[in-house]
């Protein structure tokens, strides 16, 4: 069943910290609210934008978008921290969100979209494969 009162839209820079509670949930509350708030504010001062999924005016999902030019791809969008509140999953909102993202990336003249997903997040892998994404490599990190 499709929710007709759902809206996907850009989150205004001044409202960007509204995503912090969802980011805390996504990260299993491993980073404090204060640290996440500071980081999100800094991200908003860079080439970062964020989408919100709203029911009425309640934020029920989010997706970050980084814009950059890559030597191997040209202008691209990298999406991150995609999360939809559990009560709203399996309603087609993820597909709607991705369609919004594809259209927005085209509007910004991006050549492709990249994303990272955690190795253990198998449901997201299946979703992204079904959306036409392909694994091109590994994303390594080293904590300093």
- Quickly give the CATH architecture: 3-Layer(aba) Sandwich
> Would you list the SSEs in sequence order as H and E?
EHHEEEHEH
Average pLDDT score: 93
Largest sheet: 5 strands, mixed
Q: Could you please say which CATH topology applies here?
A: Aminopeptidase
Our Rg estimate from Cα atoms comes to 15 Å
Any idea what the CATH superfamily is called?
Gcn5-related N-acetyltransferase (GNAT)
List the helices and strands and how they pair.
Blueprint: E1 6-10, H1 20-26, H2 33-44, E2 48-55, E3 58-70, E4 74-84, H3 93-107, E5 112-115, H4 122-130
Helix pairs in contact: 1-2
Descriptive notes:
The protein is of the alpha+beta class and 144 residues long. It has one domain: Gcn5-related N-acetyltransferase (GNAT) (Aminopeptidase, 3-Layer(aba) Sandwich). It is 30% helix and 28% strand. It has four helices and five strands. A five-stranded mixed beta sheet has the order 1-2-3-4-5, sandwiched between helices. Strand 4, helix 3 and strand 5 form a beta-alpha-beta unit. Helix 1 crosses helix 2. The chain is globular, with a radius of gyration of 15 Å. The protein starts with 5 loop residues before the first strand and ends in a 14-residue tail after the last helix. The model has no long low-confidence stretch (mean pLDDT 93).
